[in-house]
Amino acid sequence: MFPAMSDTRALDRAGEAVDTRQRVERLLYEAVDEVNLGLAADERLQKTPEVVLVGDAGRLDSLGLINFIVAAERRLQTEFQADLSLTDVITSQHQGRHLTLGGLCGTVTGMLERRRGGS
Amino acid sequence: MDPRPLRGLLISDFNVQNLAGYLDNDAGEPRVRAHVAPYGQVEPALLDRGHQVWREDHDFAVVWTTPSGAAPSFKGILEHVETPLAGVLEEVDLFAERLASLLDRVRFVFVPTWVAPSHDRGLGLLDLKTGPGLSNTVMRMNLRLIEASDKTANLHLLNTSRWLTRAGRDAFVPKLWYMAKVAFGNEVLREAARDIKAGLTTVLGGARKLIVLDLDNTLWGGIVGDAGWENLQLGGHDPIGEGFVDFQRALKALTRRGILLAIASKNEEGVALEAIRRHPEMVLKEEDFAGWRIHWGDKAQSLESLAEELNLGLQSMIMIDDSPVERARIREGLPEVLVPDWPAESMHFKSALLSIPELDTVSVSAEDAARSRMYAAERLRREARSSLPSLEEWIESLDLRVEATPLQPSNLQRATQLLNKTNQMNLSTRRLTESELVSWAAGEGRSVWTFAVRDKFADYGLTGLLSLEIENDTARIVDYVLSCRVMGRKIEETLLHAAIIEASSRGAKEVTALFLPTKKNMPCLAFLRASGMDGDEAALSFRWDTAREFPLPKAVRLTRHPPEGRAR
What we know:
heterodimer; A: mainly alpha; 4 helices; about 5% strand; B: alpha/beta; five-stranded parallel β-sheet; 18 strands
């Protein structure tokens, strides 16, 4: 009838990870809103996981990308009290691969989960 | 306002691309299209008229530099190298001269003041010492620049420190600097964009002139009809009451720089006026209000009716009301009226009022300071009018005196203000800066006259402007401008009389006027049609043969003064 104690903990961790991912996604979308304030209508980013931040299909120029990094880091710092640097995460993608908003969301969620697991 | 976006050139020694984006995306009027001069090219852009940035015309420029970008020896202060203050200030003077020189390429120049980074403590107690102090030197540089801007029309300084305060800990973002050479956090740049837009609204004559106020829970706490004036929350040892008194004081202060007040309230008029007259802590008195509509009818209609009575357009109005329902009604019914969101507690009213950028002004003239009194006098005049049998007799009873004076240094500021602020009785709605007006008036065959009006109730000051351009036998009226404060009292005819006399004395055989329609200047067309001038309705042009007399209205005494010297 009831799951074993170890299964319960696993479920809790999975639930927390989903919750963290949703919060990260919300913060990244808020950062997109902030970046869009300074962009022309045809340059604005959509708020979807598929939107490409870095790569051939990326819509942001280098200043736009830096604005996004600063806006996202500030929100993550306030929400999670976590001093995360997205600079390396994002700029390392310049070496060939492309990075989507959804991909960044997963990476950041993983970073936060690892921090929590390590603490 | 002009539907064409204003073109602005941003010149800086740091990256201001984000500022350009915020200016472009701000949907408020006036619309702006910002162009960024190449990064770090401050001096070439200021000095070199052949620089690539000047290949296109710009309406305004924003020159935003770090202190070292304007005064290179300021670097010595930063690096704690002994640096004579006099040398730094000389460099500020030179920078100010270069800023002034821009005004023959753009109409307005905006310059954000310099700031010391808030994270730099300037070595603590040393920071404010004269000589080596970092903040001390920045303050002195700013004061020096302020003195220079005071002497230069259309060079306007903007207060960067306020933007930093509003941005708080995000005012400086090292990552933005190191990765993109953006010197300030983006919240600072958004505040800058708002102030630049507000500055443009002000210099283009788009500032609001009239605040229409609700009474219950807006000017005082409580419902006067229920509680009685004795029991209103107003003043006393009570934070809510103090909030209302401070709000009233702030409103009263605004009347001293030309903002008019009116009331639109759902109340019994007698009950509400009794509260205004008798409550001992009322700061605003009956005479502070240019008009009121106190009844149980629709407030939107009250506002329209006040606009008509005061001869002001709805786009001149701000409405302050504690009721979200009334605010929504006005926003929907009268979108031209500015209806700010309003805080729930009176303790926030004063700060909400003083943060409305549409109340900004660039200067305060004697006419501005006296405007409230004039409107109060106008109310008395209307009351007097009700006891007279006809409009003509009423006008004749006013003892109207008009003084015509050529454009000259003493009236240049007010004349320019009138030209740029007047919408309704305005033939061509031409907008010019002081220097542009002087420059235009100096042209061959041109003359500009100003008209000051007074009657037995009040002195309205300089309220009319007329400019003529004579070519061959024809005198063309270029500007025909009359403040709404004196409309409908035969001053319109007086200006036309003066135009025809001036044209005739200078040999012109006819006077022409071409009406350029806007959304707001239909009253001017109505006057021209009724004036007796020969009109070509299709072309909206009017003419008068100077051989025919255009009589001065009987009710008006006109005096023409000789010039005291050219305005410059």
